[in-house]
Amino acid sequence: MTRQLAAFRPTAEGTEMMVLCFLSRTLQLARHSSSPLGRQLCSASANKPVLTLFTKKPCPLCDEAREELEPYKRRFIFQEVDITLPENSVWYDKYKYDIPVFHLNGKFLMKHRVDIQKFEDQLMKLELQNDGNQ
Known about the structure:
By secondary structure, the chain is an alpha/beta fold. It has helices at residues 60-69, 89-95, 116-132, and strands at 3-11, 14-23, 26-33, 50-55, 77-82, 101-104, 107-111.
């Protein structure tokens, strides 16, 4: 699982995202627009879906969710957004009472707890779409 930490901030052109990617022992800092394709900039495999966890510390439910998703880690790129950071105030206002919240490829997927069936269905759907586009 490629680990990413992301922070969002509004700009005149839209929302900008800072992404920290941890690949092996290399730390790469990428600055790009928040398009689903752009979020895959740091990925070794651009065809993997991006799963975003909106979280804050402490968050025991987020810890549980990470554990539940562990068996799937090779099938997606994982990124976390700390909603308590000042640059993520939009996400804080939206999700402060709902974490953990998950987006898959930039679209809302689930909140509060991991719905494994829903996650598997959506992940499979994206994988089949990616296979068809190759």
